[in-house]
Amino acid sequence: MGTAKTFMLLAALTALFMAVGYLIGGVPGMAIAFFVAAGMNIFSWWNADKIVLRMQGAKEITPETSSPMLRTFAGDVARMAERAGLPAPRVYIIETPQPNAFATGRNPEHAAVAATSGLLGSLSREEVAGVMAHELAHVQNRDTLTMTVTATIAGAIGMLANFALFFGRERAGLIGSIAIMIFAPMAAALVQMAISRSREYEADKRGAEICGNPLWLASALQKIERGARASVNMAAERNPAMAHMYIANPLNGRGADNLFSTHPATANRIEALRRMAADMGVSSETADAPRRQAGPWG
């Protein structure tokens, strides 16, 4: 199902890419756009995860990493992956004060998860576990390929639309070129939003099952929301087409449930997790107890 969704998404974005090419250069422009899009689709299928990690400035955590905290963090992720029946993903750290995280990779065998230094610095070990369980749920649900390929191609559509302002005047006129520049990236963003909200709720639910306590993730989301509003993730700001990949919107924390949001409202996600905790018989006192134990961060 996830693969079918990815192919449908690739087809939609390719058609949009060709439409912009047609408005810029007519039939030749559409043909060029098709071949460019086809090449990008093939390249993105195999390499989009590497592109995303490089653009976000992510550094892999290995057994040779000097920081004991980072090695412990990677070990926690590996143990949760085993609990979920997944291969251990590659684990990365991104140096930015904003607390956030994302997953990428074309399948569970080639998956990677990344957390920011701000996440490890501001959350407890249990809350970090809840966040990374959410990311592992994306891997298990095979959302990561869709998310990663969308980020790559949506960014390219935005660049192509910008070219329209300078090279598409003869074909579409100045007003048409401006319309392309505005509406093509908006259409790509709408595709992102369509796949983003439902999968975030699903990943919250499955992530809570993986870590064993929905309230860990609920508490983490509260802190991430505050942190996203208080700090700027410069790598995400430079590449806004990748915003939908993060657990919370990294673009200064704008996250209400509206037409132009890439994520569900955090309050709605927290409420759903609290209802799930009540159904599981997990109380706030039970959730607070592990947090009082000594840990390497928090």
What is the terminal separation in angstroms?
Answer: 38 Å
Helix and strand run? HEHEEEHHHHHHHH
**How many strands appear in the DSSP assignment?**
4
CA-based gyration radius: 20 Å
Q: Mean pLDDT score, rounded?
A: 80
What is the strand content? 5-15%
Approximate helicity band: 55-70%
Uncertain runs are 253-260
User: What's the tally of helices?
Assistant: 10
Largest sheet: 4 strands, mixed
Summarize the entry for a quick read.
This protein is mainly α. It contains 10 helices and 4 strands. It has a 4-stranded mixed β-sheet, with helices on both faces.
Secondary-structure map with pairings?
Layout: H1 2-55, E1 58-60, H2 68-83, E2 90-94, E3 101-104, E4 112-116, H3 117-122, H4 125-140, H5 144-167, H6 169-211, H7 214-230, H8 234-238, H9 266-280, H10 284-291
Parallel strand pairs: 2-4
Antiparallel strand pairs: 1-2, 3-4
Helix pairs in contact: 1-5, 1-6, 2-4, 4-6, 4-7, 5-6, 6-7, 6-9, 7-9
Structure description:
By secondary structure, the chain is mainly alpha-helical. The chain contains ten helices and four strands. It has helices spanning 2-55, 68-83, 117-122, 125-140, 144-167, 169-211, 214-230, 234-238, 266-280, 284-291; strands spanning 58-60, 90-94, 101-104, 112-116. The chain has a four-stranded mixed sheet with strand order 1-2-4-3, with helices on both faces. Strand 3 and strand 4 (112-116) form a beta hairpin.
